[in-house]
Amino acid sequence: MVKNASIDGEWTVVLPSKRRHGKRKTKPKVHEEEEEEEEEKPWKSDDLEIDPQRQARVKQKMENAIKKVESSKFYTTFLEQLKRPEVSDQFRHVLGAEAQLQMVMYGIGSIESYESPRFQLSIAILMKREFDWVGNIEVFDPVLSVTESSVLESLGCTVLSVNEQARREALKPTLFFMPHCEANLYNNLLQANWRMDRLSRIALFGNSFQMYEEQVTLEPQVIRATKRIIASRGFTSEFAIETVSDDYFPAFHDSSWHFFSPGLDSELPLLVSEGL
Ligand SMILES: C[S@@+](CC[C@H](N)C(=O)[O-])C[C@H]1O[C@@H](n2cnc3c(N)ncnc32)[C@H](O)[C@@H]1O
Asked: Where are the annotated segments for Disordered (predicted)?
C-alpha cells in the first residue's frame, strides 16, 4: 500500500482517481499473490521494549478516538446498519448455533502514528462492547510495535505472534476485520476457506469486493491478486459502509460488510490455474 503523505499523512488505498460527491474516490491497490513465499511465520517487532511514556500517549490517543467515534453520527449510522434485518440476519446465519463470533483483525496499521487505524480499532472495540455476540479480538499487523501491542492488550485484544498471511481457516464463526488491506490478503483468506461450510462461517469487513470487480484490469498480477475476490462475487452479499462525514472518510471509504453463501460446494468456481 502507499502512504499518501501529501494529503493527510494517512494510509490510503491509492491516489485519488476521480471525484465522487466532492470526495476522494479511490481504487483498491492490489498486491501480487505470492503463494510460494507467503509462509506463516513467527513475528517479532523491531522495538524490543515497551516505552512507558509512548505507551501512555498511545493509550490516551486510543481513549480519545473511542470517545470521538462513540459520540459520532458515523457510529450511530454504523450501528443502525448492523441492526437492520438484512444485515443482522446475515450475522445470525454466520453465528449458527454458536453464541459468539470471534474477531480476527488483520492490517490495522500503526495506532500510534495514524488516526485511521485508531478509528478502525475504535469501531471494533465499540462493537465488542455493544454486542454480546462479539467475542475476543485477535490482532496482527507486522507494523505494530511492542509498545502499540501493549496498548492493544490493555484494551482487551490479543496480539498474535504469528504472521498468518490472512490464511486463518474459519473452523468456527469468525468476523474478519480487515480495514483497507491489500487485495492479496482478502484473496488468501478466501483461498484458505474455499469451501461452503467455511465460507458460511465468515463475516468480513474490508475493501468493497464490488469495487474490485468494477476496477479489475487484464494485467496478470491484478488477475492473480483478485481472482478469488472476483470469483466470490456471485455468492457474496455486500453492504457498504456509509462514511457520513469527512472525519471518517479516510478510515472507512470504500469499505463493506461481506457475507458468503455459495449454496453447494459444487457451485464454487474451480480455480486451478494458479499460475495465471
Ligand atoms: C494500507 S495499510 C492499511 C492500514 C490501516 N488499516 C488504514 O486503513 O490506514 C495495509 C496494512 O496491512 C498490513 N499487512 C500487510 N501484510 C499483513 C499480514 N500478512 N497480516 C496482517 N496485516 C498485514 C500492513 O502492515 C498495513 O498496515
From this structure: 1-51
> Left (φ > 0), alpha (ψ -120 to 50) or beta: where does 16 sit?
beta
Question: Cα–Cα distance between 71 and 73 in angstroms, integer?
Answer: 7
Residue 23 covered by a domain: no
Task: Please count the structural domains in the chain.
Answer: 1
Q: What is the pLDDT of residue 271?
A: 65
In a domain, 59, yes or no: yes
3-7, 85-89, 251-255, 263-267: least confidently modelled range: 3-7
More confident residue, 273 or 212: 212
Predicted pLDDT of residue 6: 31
Q: Which of 5, 152, 137 is nearest to 65 (CA)?
A: 152
Q: What is the mean pLDDT of residues 122-149?
A: 97
Domain span holding position 197: 51-262
Instruction: Provide mean pLDDT across the span 54-80.
Output: 98
- pLDDT recorded at residue 119: 98
> What's the gap in Å between 263 CA and the centre of ligand 1?
31
CA 265 to centroid of ligand 1, rounded, Å = 31
CATH of the domain at 136: 3.40.50
Instruction: Give residue ranges with CB within 6 A of ligand 1.
Output: 1, 10-11, 106-109, 114, 116-117, 120, 140-143, 163, 165-166, 179-181, 185
Distance 207 CA to ligand 1 centre (A): 12
Residue 202 has a pLDDT of 98
Is residue 12 domain-resident? no
